[in-house]
Design a protein that fits this description.
Length: 373
């Protein structure tokens, strides 16, 4: 099989879908590997490192020519895949609910689009899950970016010139990103509290040494929720949550929001009136800003100042940690394909559980059940 990796072309994308480590491993499985010239530069991986690992370096067209599998971070435009083998697999992020035109183009060109964000949340797929690997880094970076923007310190400091108070940080949404945000804010010395709609997160918050802030009057989601994901909450819950947040948020210096609902716009968790109740100089980092935002008025890649509060959020937070984000994403790709490698056939054969979950297009059609219904 020929496997190809192209330079990412989306604005602000710095990651690359393979590293010298994964190139070596794919070659050890009996494959040929092609990398577009300069594909790794923004992630600090020079062409020579890919070449030393055994990859052929060339133009986009030469790399993709005859490729059976193309690996990407964000799915490339179909015009960049011209010359790939008929029915080639393209494993990448598709943002499938928002990208109907792209999927139609992939179907029409006869490619099999494999959506890495549709990887099922089952134990054996954990090492293939790009949402987890990237969210973890994003949670970390959100805290660092907030600390950098905040005009005060995170830890309490007793100095000869007087005491510096510890920052209070509040994490809203305790999935993979939120857990890492709690851990990072604690390491920096903040007093941390956190909330979620899934009751299973309460214990996780406590185990990281933070304080859980939960709606008690209306039931949230017991346990982990379907596949670990949250759903849209009832109006009654939303009202109770808004009241709870209003009383808590006014005392916070740093708020990190991470709440997402698959296939829907992110829920708005912080309104303009709540922002107005915060102290001037406070910082909010909206990790959901690219999915519509958890914070009223947040804008991707902009510092919006409202009522003296700075609201920030990168459009693509993992891209701000390009080297580690690429390394983990590339391993997710390798773990995914190698788990299904049929040594005799010399190619991967996906099983139904994972194959049907991630496959978006095949045989000229959009085939994924989540997109149909
Ligand atoms: P996510 O990115 O979909 O959402 C982030 C968090 O926001 C979630 O915890 C969610 O409950 C919360 N949220 C949604 N709406 C909210 C609201 N209105 N108010 C407050 N919080 C809200 O979630 P995620 O980070 O991908 O992880 C969710 C769960 O799935 C976790 O328990 C994680 O451990 C689990 N998981 C399992 C696997 C696996 O087994 N392979 C892989 C990844 C994640």
């Amino acid at each position: 099989m020929k496997i190809a990796v192209l330079k990412e072309r989306a604005a602000g994308e710095t990651r690359v879908a393979a590293t010298p480590e994964t190139v070596k491993k794919f070659i050890a499985l009996g494959n040929e590997f092609a990398v577009e010239k300069g594909a790794g530069l923004s992630a600090s991986i020079p062409d020579e490192a890919f070449a030393e690992a055994g990859a052929t370096i060339g133009t986009a067209a030469a790399s993709v020519k005859g490729a059976d599998i193309v690996l990407g971070i964000q799915a490339p435009d179909v015009t960049k895949l011209k010359g790939a083998a008929s029915g080639a697999w393209v494993a990448a992020l598709y943002d499938p609910f928002q990208n109907g035109d792209l999927l139609s183009a992939y179907a029409k060109a006869g490619f099999e689009a494999l959506s890495m964000e549709f990887m099922p949340r089952i134990t054996r797929a954990q090492s293939m899950d790009v949402l987890s690997s990237q969210s973890n880094l994003a949670g970390y970076k959100a805290v660092l970016a907030s600390a950098d923007t905040y005009g005060r310190a995170f830890p309490m400091m007793m100095t000869a010139a007087g005491t510096v108070q510890a920052a209070r940080a509040f994490i809203m949404g305790v999935g993979v990103a939120g857990l890492q945000a709690i851990a990072t804010a604690r390491r920096l010395g903040a007093q941390v509290s956190a909330t979620d709609v899934r009751s299973a997160t309460k214990e996780q918050i406590e185990s990281l040494g933070a304080k859980p802030i939960f709606v008690e009057s209306v039931a949230g989601i017991e346990g982990e929720g379907s596949g670990g994901y949250a759903t849209e909450m009832s109006e009654e819950y939303q009202k109770a949550q808004a009241e709870l947040v209003s009383s808590h948020i006014a005392k916070q210096d740093i708020v990190i929001t991470t709440a997402l609902i698959p296939g829907r716009a992110a829920p708005v968790l912080i309104t303009d009136a709540q922002i107005a109740s915060m102290k001037p100089g406070s910082v909010i980092y909206d990790l959901a800003v690219a999915q519509g935002g958890n914070v009223e008025g947040s804008k991707p890649d902009e510092i919006v100042e409202k009522h003296g509060v700075k609201i920030i959020g990168y459009a693509n937070t993992p891209a701000h940690l390009a080297t580690d984000a690429s390394a983990l994403f590339a391993r997710n790709h390798y773990n995914f394909l190698s788990a299904f490698w049929d040594k005799e056939a010399g190619k991967p054969e996906l099983d139904d559980e994972i194959g049907d979950a991630v496959r978006l297009t095949k045989g000229g059609e959009v085939v994924n059940e989540r997109l149909k219904g």
